[in-house]
Amino acid sequence: MRRLFVLSLLLALTATTFAQKPTAESIRKRFSIGTTLFTDLWQNVPDSIDTRTINQGIDVYATYNFPMDRKGHMFFFAGAGIGAHNFYSKTMIKLDANDKSYFDYFPKTANGHSVSVKKNKLSITYFDIPFGFQYKATNKIHATLGFKVGWSMNSHTKYKGTDYSDESTGRTVKLKSAGIPNIQKIHYGPLVTIGYKWVGLTASYQVTPTFEKDMGPEIYPISVGITLRPF
Q1: Do the Cβ atoms of 57 and 86 come closer than 8 Å?
Q2: CA atoms within 13 A on the CB side of 111
Q3: Is the pTM of this model over 0.90?
């Protein structure tokens, strides 16, 4: 991990040597602010778990571009952002006798009442640092190849459906549980974007599993979506 950051720093410093002396206006133009709307395609989900097809998420980020040539086609970029990932299913997260996390279905009945799950999800919010290379053609088509490292800031579950407690009255409840055990603290993986002007198609692959090694199911997302960068 340290080698990636050192390499990124060296590339950034190298990039600045190719650039002309920046002005206040050019520095402002090198900043980009955008958002990505994506869906997570969850991999390695246990066959017994029925997941939703669309697992929408959002990423908001800001980057700074370092020119690597005098014509302004190649850039090295680095930045920061906040990303929210969701895993929708009709299962709850439990702990076994060894405090290992696993998914289990909600009961079909509770205190004589049938249980209906309207919505249930696991949400994880990350602070991310993206960096990499971007090429901008004269026809305003651009392509990005990069990498993203992130730290989990928050994790929680949200449930809406029939009260499934032992004292259930059959009423609909909304429940939120924070601080989900065994969530991986760090995630990272490559990302790629192809676009035109301020719109692009993007995909990222999370190499690390969502849960800590040997402490939960080894599921991980492939995120595919649309990135909008009007600023």
Answers
A1: yes
A2: 10
A3: no
